[in-house]
Model the fold of this input.
Amino acid sequence: MVRKPVLRVPLKPEGERTQPLDSLERARRSLRDIIDKRGTDRNEGVQVRPLDPDEAIGNDADSGFVIKKDKERVVEATFRERRGQAFTDRPTVWSGTLAELLSLPLDEISNRALFVAGLNAVLCALDLLPGTIHCKDADPSRCGSEVARFVNERFGTVRVGLIGLQPAILEALVERFGPDSVRVVDLNPDTVGESRSGVLVWDGEKDLARLVSQCDVGLATGSSVVNKTLDEILERFRQTGKPLILFGNTISGVAALLGLERLCPFGGQG
Done:
């Protein structure tokens, strides 16, 4: 099931800027437009906190997920009692007004994570966005087979490039397409160079171009918008004309605002 709500807002006022903006900055400008048009009070509060692994993906989720290893975390924002989340390796606690959220500098990864979570929560509270909460328990493992099935049904028998190691998705892609038709890159030095599900994990910093050249379809983790790699990924696939689908709840709001395709079979409503 593809979740691709597109919010029809102007992203580039007449006469504004000639230099391309970071995707998250573009999304922030769109969010400001929505808030202004709706007359949303910028003095309303937003709270952000990291979740422990069981809160994030459930007690019964597979221990192989990186969240369960407590090396990366989910941060959750609350706005008007609605929730949005983001995946990050630099979680932080934050509390402030909507105006302060909209003014956060986005050069630091920790700020990008809390802003993305906040953006998702705000859009959820405005009833503009579904799927802002990570799935739990058995669903993260079930997600892989759903993603692989979707790719197969839409594109046929293809070579798939997975950007960001999600074990269940990788396993399901290999099962459906075969290890010779799957490539994967990751930024975690603990996994780069290892064989997972019969596929060698390449270096996400060095081997992205090689992955794009050797696949027909790309699947990229939505946390790329937090770690500042999204724009390079988008540009690589744009240059080759190959389809790219983002997955996960982290990028739900940015994907909606920028019209990017997102797949999140079991994402929950915040």
Observations:
- The chain has two domains: 23-125, 139-263.
- Confidence is low (pLDDT under 50) at residues 1-18.
- The CA atoms of residues 66 and 131 lie 21 Å apart.
